[in-house]
Input
Amino acid sequence: MTEQTRKTRVLTTDAPAPAHVFSQGVRKGPIVQVSGQGPVDPATSEYLFPGDVAAQTIRTLENVRAIVEASGATFDDVVMLRVYLTKREDFAIMNEAYGEFVTKHTPSGVLPSRTTVFTGLPREEMLVEIDALAVVA
Output
């Protein structure tokens, strides 16, 4: 197996440690998959900003970005983000915070594609969860 085809775990202390049996992210060749992240402080493992979907969205995206960068990629290498929300009413607020963050961290101007899903999440205090797919040139 060559370095280009080897599957490697992505791990950083700048994002929350996985709470279950999965990696923060995985890189295989030029592809980086980031596991679903929530609004967790990496230093304390505390869920932040109860009831504030905008602040939770920003914190979650910061965690995603930290894992992407730990893989050797940049946020501009992200080609897909999946956003999971618990309430349809939170969409506009999430979308505004998301738009500001993603635009700021995508200097190429080519924004990632996105899917938004409304569902239950693992923790009651989580209003949002986001995962990412990046491709490194």
Q: What stands out?
A: The beta strands are 7-10, 25-28, 31-37, 78-85, 113-118, 128-135. The mean pLDDT is 96. The CA atoms of residues 47 and 97 lie 18 Å apart. The chain has two helices and six strands.
